[in-house]
Design brief:
two-stranded antiparallel ribbon, transport, single chain, 3Fe-4S, iron-sulfur, 14% strand, metal ion binding, two-stranded antiparallel sheet
Length: 98
């Protein structure tokens, strides 16, 4: 797990440092910053998730995928997405009448 803190959003509540003091530090005015590069050890994941979920201004975000291990990413289709647009040329297909 890796986290990011948006300091421009932080309002200095300090809840993150209360939950996970090893990952968040507070400056003299109470505003938080991430300690290190934001990589969270597996054993500290619960405390950091509590900090993330309890942040009143949602300044902390989790980076990366949330797919379970072994689940492949969705395959990209070679099909043109604009092929299914509703236009005047195909209005009879989707039931539009003027």
């Amino acid at each position: 797990m890796k986290i990011r803190l948006d300091r421009t959003v932080c309002d200095g509540f300090g809840i993150c440092a209360k939950h996970a003091p090893g990952y968040f530090s507070l400056d003299d005015w109470g505003y938080a910053s991430v300690v290190g590069d934001g990589t969270v050890a597996d054993e500290d994941r619960g405390a950091v998730m509590n900090a993330l979920l309890d942040c009143p201004v949602h300044a902390i975000t989790e980076l990366g995928d949330r797919r379970p291990n072994g689940t492949p990413p969705p395959s990209s289709s070679a099909e043109d997405p604009s092929a299914h647009l509703k236009t005047e040329e195909n209005e009879a297909e989707w039931g539009f009448t003027r």
